[in-house]
Amino acid sequence: MLYLILSNIALIVFFLIYWLGLRKLTFFQWNRWFLLGSLIIAYLIPLGLYIQVPMPEMMIMEIPEIAIGTNQQAIDANQVSANHWEILSIQTLHAMYWLGVAIFSVWFLYRVVALLRTIREGSAKGSFSFFGKIVLSKELHDEDLRQVRNHELEHVKQGHSLDIILLEIFRLFNWFNPIYPILIREMKFVHECIVDEKHADNKVAYAELLLAQAMNTKSALLQHEFSNNSLLKNRITMLFKEKTAYKFKATYLLTLPASLFMLFLVVNCKQEEQKAEPKVEKITLQDVPEERKYEGTLIDNPEILADYPGGIDNFRKFVQETYTYPQAAIDAGVRGKVVANFIIGSDGEISNILITEDLGHGTGEALIAAIEKAEKWKPAIQDGQAVASRFMIPLRLDLSQQ
Fold it and tell me: What is the pLDDT along the chain (402 residues), one digit of tens a residue?
């Protein structure tokens, strides 16, 4: 879902660049490729979510927080309730999304069937093309018939129907994005401008033919009509507009910094997520005791993490049951979090226990004592060899609810 949100935001940004900076230019082929290219790039940018950038900071695996002295049953109940509603909300969003996809798919198929029926039966008034099929109005004669046929044949040669179908397919899976109806309409306008520019030898006569055909043209489906009321005014305006100076093609370069900036934001957000809690960035190698009494090579983020007999939850339970709440801390009524870092050697032994957050009154020392009593771990594995790795465990202390 995040991928869809980011890609649609990127598409909106690109379309705004087009609408505000490129739409009035007479580089119609360039506009066509810009709209298609921005569609593809918009859906490539969120792939930055899956780019793993090496991080020089120390990586410390965090064990889920342990609570001592609080109403743990109430906390667990609240957590279960929160998780339930979170899962329910996600399932509802997914159901709504796929329902929208289904509705738009049915609508798309209906329009395709209606268009194929029109192609089979012919058109009494309007003229249009769809892929290799060209339907000409039965009211056209002589020169007008030749002009309209050449116009529609140009649509076929340039594959304009493929552009529209591509946009419609993307729209099926991004139906919630309000930009798509405007984008499809704009693409059809660009297609018409491309063909108008190539075949309007006599601009005045061509404009008159457009007006005459527009009087009896139905609303657009998926085809390219020779004349469409909704696009007519802008088509005639562009038909008589002076050609844009070549130097203004540099405007299309706006896409490059916009793309790079959005990719940077996506990748940076991913890295910020990786660096956020539970990783302790303030801890550096200098914080490790000088004796460094552990076996093996110390590896951050190993291929296979170290594990406690019975699992990490069993280690949490052991520390929770073993921890002795210092009397001095009880008397002082201290509340808060105590955090300890430690190293699991390649032999599974715990060493180098270091308190990085402390509440004083012996709370840190009591946590060290509890951790030291734990069993040997199953060491981490890197390249098939047992290695040493770092862990961090937070302990929440609060007697106020007892």
Answer: 778 888 888 889 889 888 888 888 888 899 999 999 989 988 888 876 665 545 444 556 767 777 776 554 544 555 555 556 666 678 888 899 999 999 999 999 999 998 888 888 876 567 788 888 888 877 777 777 778 888 888 889 999 999 999 999 999 999 999 999 999 999 998 998 888 887 666 665 666 566 666 655 544 456 665 555 556 667 667 766 777 776 767 777 766 777 777 766 665 655 544 444 433 333 333 344 444 578 888 887 888 888 899 888 899 889 888 888 888 888 888 888 889 889 999 989 888 888 888 888 888 899 999 999 999 999 999 888 999 988 888 888 876 655
Q: Is 288 helix (H, G, I), strand (E, B) or coil?
A: coil
Per cent of the chain over pLDDT 90 is 17
| Residue at 327: amino acid letter | Q
3-state secondary structure of 103: helix
What's the full length of the chain, in residues?
402
Rounded to whole angstroms, the Cα distance separating 281 from 176 reads 39
Q: At what angle do helices 28-44 and 179-199 cross, to 10 degrees?
A: 150
Give the position of tokens 């529209």.
164
- The string of DSSP letters for 130-189 reads ETTEEE--TT--HHHHHHHHHHHHHHHHHTHHHHHHHHHHHHHHTTT-THHHHHHHHHHH
What are the CA-CA distances from residue 128 to residues 133, 144, 225, 271, 335 (Å)? 9, 14, 4, 51, 75
Three-class HEC string of 239-283: HHCCCCCHHHHHHHHHHHHHHHHHHHHHHHHHHHHHHCCCCCCCC
Residue with tokens 């490059």: 256
- Cis check for the bond before 257: say yes or no (omega within 30 of 0): no
The Cα–Cα gap between 197 and 33 comes to 17
How many CB atoms within 10 Å of residue 299? 18
User: With contact defined as beta carbons under 8 Å apart, do 319 and 366 qualify?
Assistant: no
What's the distance, Cα to Cα, between the start and end of the chain in Å?
Answer: 42
Distance between CA atoms of residues 395 and 367, nearest Å: 8
